[in-house]
Specification:
heterodimer; A: seven-stranded mixed beta sheet; B: mainly beta; 0% helix; 50% strand
Amino acid sequence: DIVLTQSPALAVSLGQRATISCRASQSVSTSSYNLMHWYQQKPGQQPKLLIYDASNLASSIPARFSGSGSGTDFTLTINPVQADDIATYYCQQSRELPPTFGAGTKLELK
Amino acid sequence: EVQLVESGGGLVQPGRSLKLSCAASGFTFSDYYMAWVRQAPTKGLEWVASISYDGGSTYYRDSVKGRFTISRDNAKSSLYLQMDSLRSEDTATYYCTTDRYGCFDYWGQGVMVTVSS
């Protein structure tokens, strides 16, 4: 299985930039697609898709969220961070079965 | 508006069975692969199973193969997960999701399954 590694937590100030990273144990890119996706989960709620195929914003997601990366290294950026963004963020790959998720990065206020 | 509503969760003894259901609305159900993703208490997300548009192809994680069965009824816009021989490690919130080439676009609110004697 492809293992995705995320830092457990990130502390950030409101209005600043947050950069959350995800590293895959092997490439999750094809010649056409970077098959990495990002989700936001707030306590007691279901996850919500933010970014698909590494850099595409999902429907109704604010433009302060962006994604980048290819191969094994991917980044989710939130700029500027708002209070409503305090949540846990998960990366997920769909390059190979089984689809796997990172352990999540908890975004906290500094 | 896409809605996915799970039901059928609860407390069940190890070795027993439970069947989860997911009622879909707001989109053409038969146009989507569907999946179940679970989350153990205070843990991360784990894909469980996926099913193709017409139910002809199914996919499972190794730990549930032979115990869980994913199915769908397109006429009823419904997704199911039959869970047999349940184990304590199956305790989790189970989410019904759309599955677009392995990307989980829309999620239900989840249903809790607790396996305990």
